[in-house]
Amino acid sequence: MRDLTNEILELIRRTSSSLPPDVEKRLRESFEKEQPGSSARGAFETILKNIEISRANSTPICQDTGTPIFYVHYPVGLSTIKLKGQIRSALAEATKRSYMRPNAVDAIYDKNTGNNLGGDDFPYVHFEEVEGDDLTIELMLKGGGCENVGRQYSLPDNSIGAGRDLAGVRKVVLDAVQKAQGQGCAPGILGVSIGGDRGSSYIKSKEVLFSEMGTRNTDPKIAELEERLTSEANEMGIGPMGFGGATTILDTKIVGLSRLPASYFVSVSYMCWAYRRRKMTVKGEEVIYD
Amino acid sequence: MKQITTPITDDVIRDLKVGDAVALSGMLVTGRDAVHKWMIETFIKKTREPQGDDLQVYEELKKLLNGSVIYHCGPVVSGLDTKEYKFVAAGPTTSIREEPYQADVMKHFNLKGVIGKGGMGAKTLKGCEETPAVYFHAIGGAASYIAQTVTKVHGVFKLDFGVPEAIWVIEVKEFPVVVTMDSHGGSQHAVIEASSKKILEDLLAR
């Protein structure tokens, strides 16, 4: 198996400094909707300028380079132990080169490790064995500000009259957006999972964020709820940074899981506008970046 | 856009109103979670004995912060090996985590403002009226852009808190911010919180 440390380092550089085109396009469209002279429009101006500067200079879009979340789809026979080692080496090197901030803090002793490597949990790496010969590595960087405004609800939730159905899901998601205000660096993208246990529910609410902007659930009923939630969230007028304005949420993605008869969890992962996710595919000797 | 340079006088602060766009220049100091907790425990409530270089850093901070601002920021910094520090990425972090501490820190050090994102609560707003001071909102995530306004890194204290949590003494030129909490009780965050709450209630009733 070839050593992919340098190729993964390049994936990290791209993810941290170059926002995916679908996200940038949606931000540009949202900028046009804000009133000339408003703080909201000014916020979008700064955001768009920052995207260009980061890409040109290979510097982080946001200084909070977040939790590095790797999803690896590997062909039969590839060593995940070796791959994980290469991911960790690449991350330490990326930190040395200032593509990443040292972000792993020991929670018991309050000590920053300085190289972005914590225990087995940091960075987060998920492996999935797949058919075929290609290896793909996806990376998402999710900052702490938006992570902190994520929420999990256990339905029924009487405080907002949310029952165990899609109408209840709608209510809790809107509640989560209102509670987040601008603190998750609005405009945000919502990853929503329905069902699961507390752990799987949160994980899937992030995993769904790997899909492109505007990707709709294949179930028309859920796709409609996704559209409706984005539109109703924007009616609240929280706006970029919570300044007030037309765009609070750029997109909503929902995934349904299995649940226990007794449990009905809804998890909302809030992704900030600096929606950093990139992918690399290894086909034989060739490495392709999205 | 108003041009303001630190140190800032009370008159300048009293003139600022919610919605004012400001280009901020001069010396300022970064400080976030670990720093606020350390300041409160060691020098303000004194529930913890000063240790190591605490008192020496405190004396420096008293001079640096008087009339200046604290920036809620955990930067990406290059030159850690050579100590030729340069800010590479330096957007604001979420300020509300400092809500328990901020008003007391403002008054203790005679801060004229804090820079952060997401806004702060009633206790800090009251602190802004009394000190007086304002809340300058920077654009969250605009890290490369804001780093370019940092013209010089003068030094660092408490690097053992970690790079993001350390106290960086920096000089900025035309750092773009918006006043979202003023010294007259005005808060854009309280306004948006209330208006969005009202709309949420209507949506939930549908």
The coarse overall form of chain A would be: globular
Biggest sheet features of chain B: 5 strands, mixed, barrel
* Elements of chain B, N to C (H/E): EHEHHEEEHEHEHEEH
Oligomeric state: heterodimer
Mean pLDDT figure of chain B: 97
Structural description of this entry:
The complex is a heterodimer of chains A (290) and B (206). Chain A is an alpha+beta fold and 290 residues long. Chain A has 2 domains: 5-14 and 61-143 and 276-289, 60s Ribosomal Protein L30, Chain: A (2-Layer Sandwich); 145-271, no CATH class. Chain A is built from 8 helices and 11 strands. Chain A has helices spanning 5-17, 21-33, 39-57, 80-96, 144-148, 166-180, 198-207, 220-235, and strands at residues 67-75, 105-106, 111-112, 124-130, 135-142, 151-154, 188-194, 249-256, 265-271, 276-283, 286-289. A 5-stranded mixed beta sheet of chain A has the order 4-1-5-10-11. In chain A, helix 1 packs across helix 4. The model of chain A has no long low-confidence stretch (mean pLDDT 97). Helix content of chain B is 36%, strand content 27%. In chain B, strand 4 and strand 5 form a beta hairpin. Chain B is globular. In chain B, strands 2-3-6-7-9 form a 5-stranded mixed beta barrel. With 206 residues, chain B is α/β, with parallel strands linked by helices. Chain B has helices at 10-15, 33-44, 54-65, 99-109, 122-130, 143-149, 188-205; strands spanning 2-5, 21-30, 69-71, 76-78, 86-89, 113-116, 134-137, 150-157, 167-181. Chain B has one domain (2-205): Alpha-Beta Barrel (fumarase). The chains are: A alpha+beta (290), B alpha/beta (206). Chains A and B meet through helix 3, strand 3, helix 5 and helix 6 of A and strand 4, helix 6, strand 9 and helix 7 of B.
